Amino acid sequence: MDQDRRDAAAWAKEWYIRKKNRRLLYTLLAILAVTAIVFAVRFVIVQLERTTFGSEEEMRAAMQDRYAIERDYEDIYIEGDKITLTYLAYTHYNREYAEKYGYDYDEEDAVYEDDVAKWDYRHGVIKTYWMGDIIVDKDGNIRRGDYSYSTFRRTDEPRPEPIDPSTLNEPEGDINAEIDPEEEEAVEERSEELELTQDAAAAADIDASEGE
Predict the structure, then answer these.
(1) pLDDT for the residue 2
(2) Residue 210: CA atoms inside 13 Å, Cβ hemisphere, count?
(3) Which 3-state string (H, E, C) describes the chain?
(4) From CA 128, how far away is CA 136, in angstroms rounded?
(5) What's the alpha-carbon Rg for the chain, to the nearest Å?
(6) Could you report the per-residue pLDDT of 117-130, keeping only the tens digit for each?
(7) What local confidence, expressed as pLDDT, does residue 17 receive?
(8) Buried/exposed code over 160-183 (b: 16+ C-beta within 10 A; e: otherwise)
């Protein structure tokens, strides 16, 4: 009788260990399956949405250029391994805006510089030290990873010339001007991005240079 109890206890213990091991195996298989799906999705995204390259040298050579968001008066210059991001003084370049809301004599261009930490040619990513990842899309344009709504488009056009305020009809602006919702949204997006850039630069102990 005692032997039967011992055999039953041994069987129950063995059954519990097998059940536990089976549960661990299923959990491990589920984790591996999820990981495989994540890698597959990432691979598809890279292939469909980004430009990839054969080597670092190929990527560096292909990305040398000026990229701009013309409506927001922002641009990025990639020269060698140096990246220069500039927020042009909005009222100094947008004549319609300056006529409508006034020319800000105190506003200045905000210029930020960074260096390429890695040309991640396999994934179409320019890794920088503090500006974050710069993604190269399928059309060869770029966007900063954190700011997906802003695409800097490659352009051969030179940077626009600043406005001579003496040529404005109303340099102080029109006091009766109504704010256009789309224009207000664009300005708010630009201001938000500039603020985030300033915060990132401050965290990296980078000062913006100013000028025109």
Answers:
(1) 64
(2) 4
(3) CHHHHHHHHHHHHHHHHHHHHHHHHHHHHHHHHHHHHHHHHHHHHHHHHECCCCCHHHHHHHHCEEEEEHHHCEEEEEECCEEEEEECCHHHHCHHHHHHHCCCCCCCEEEEEEEEEEEECCCCEEEECCCCEEEEECCCCEEECCCCCCCEEEECCCCCCCCCHHHCCCCCCCCCCCCCHHHHHHHHHHHHHHHHHHHHHHHCCCCCEEEC
(4) 13
(5) 28
(6) 999 999 999 999 99
(7) 76
(8) eeebeeeebeebebeeeeeeeeee
* CA distances in angstroms from 156 to 67, 103, 153, listed in the order given: 9, 28, 10
C-beta neighbour count of 145 within 10 angstroms: 14
pLDDT of residue 182: 81
Which residue type sits at 25?
Answer: L
Low pLDDT (below 70) residues in the chain: 1-13, 29-30, 32-48, 146-149, 210-212
